[in-house]
Amino acid sequence: MWPGDDHQNCTSSNGPSPPLTIFPSIAPPPPPHNHHCVATLEGQNSYTSALLLTGECLFTGSSDGEIRLNSLTSLHHYQTLTVAGKGAVKALIASSDKLITAHQDHKIRVWKLDQTVHNHHHQITHLATLPTLTDRAIKILIPKNHIQIRRHKTRTWIHHVDTVSDLALSIDESLLYSVSWDRALKIWRTSDFKCLESVPAHDDAINAIALSRNGRVYTGSTDRKIKIWRKKPGEKGHTLEATLEKHNAGINALALSADGTVLYSGGSDRLIVVWMSDERGGGMEVAAVLRGHKKAILCLSTESEVVCSGSADKTVRIWARVGKSCSCLAVLEGHKGPIKCIKMALDHDHDRHHNCSNSSTYRLYSASLDCDIKIWKVFLPG
């Protein structure tokens, strides 16, 4: 359920939302393409650099290493879970009762979340920092495990040596994938968090990763390339399956449809490229190029046939795909800085409550360098 509408200084391409209080029990069905900001979370001392939606919780990671938990039923009440590492939290993912975080200080941290709530507060316990002490101790004794990272300096291959920029989990949650500005893709076993593999994947920083249900791994880099990796039966490690090239500048964000057939990539060239599975060869081909943002695309999120994009131009755009055709349905304005991260999800509770059989309601969360998080309601025709 949604908290009461809080019409702030947020606008959309339809203009400002009317200053009305709407009671969910008697509100009429929304018109097509209606969208407005329902709340703004303010008062943070640093900007939000990572978002995670899971269940009734919104987890946030900030540029100063703080990890917070907001209840979706009471958005203005939050709990600071911990402050970890030096620098920003770059990514957050959940695995059963665990929270896994990627950090600017080159580390991956694993936390246990206590599912019992005492006085509406969650407990969080630090379980591990990757690579683990055991893994490091075993690898450091063997010379061939060391690689040169700079002149006169070496590290074992299990270490990331620059910002860990993104994370992904396999469908069965047995494997954790991490990418870094050190140009490497690493694979970890979640049962003991041992590093199984390190792939020198790109020629420049890797900014994003997406993982399909069939095991394909997509990595997007500042080198302007998307690479597709796969571990074939009988092989020891992941090998390069294909390289996708269309962007004219670095790739900052990737989003993959639930069935793995549509990949969206956003770059510093202000473009969103829509890639679709080539049924003939099993690869990916360009289906559309979405233009409209005036500056770099920094983040993407997709749900069903809808994708939303956040840009350095301070706006969020909502796009709908029908087959190979895409159109921009809305431009959400109100942030005073670049949109750093974004998440969207279907609001099933609202649709059931209002019997919205001919439309879909989405919840959209956008975080900006202005240190605010905005929560939007978006109604789209079914």
Biggest pleated-sheet summary: 5 strands, antiparallel
Strand content range: over 45%
Oligomeric status = single chain
Can you give the mean pLDDT? 87
Head-to-tail CA distance between termini:
20 Å
Number of helices: 2
| Cα shape | globular
> How many β-strand stretches?
31
Spatial extent as radius of gyration: 21 Å
Helix content: under 10%
**Structural class determined from secondary elements:** mainly beta
Strand order of the largest sheet: 1-28-27-26-25
Give start-end ranges of low-pLDDT stretches. Answer: 1-32
Description:
The protein is mainly beta. It is 4% helix and 55% strand. It contains two helices and 31 strands. The protein has helices at residues 133-140, 348-354, and strands at 11-12, 35-41, 48-54, 57-62, 66-71, 74-83, 89-95, 98-103, 108-118, 121-130, 146-150, 153-156, 164-169, 175-180, 184-189, 194-200, 206-211, 217-221, 225-230, 239-245, 251-256, 262-267, 272-277, 284-290, 297-303, 306-311, 316-322, 325-333, 339-346, 359-368, 373-381. The strands form eight sheets. Strands 1-28-27-26-25 form a five-stranded antiparallel β-sheet, with no helix packed on it. A four-stranded antiparallel β-sheet has the order 2-31-30-29, with helices on one face. A four-stranded antiparallel β-sheet has the order 3-4-5-6, with no helix packed on it. Strand 15 (184-189) and strand 16 (194-200) form a beta hairpin. The longest helix has 8 residues, at 133-140. The chain is globular. The model is unreliable at 1-32 (pLDDT under 50).
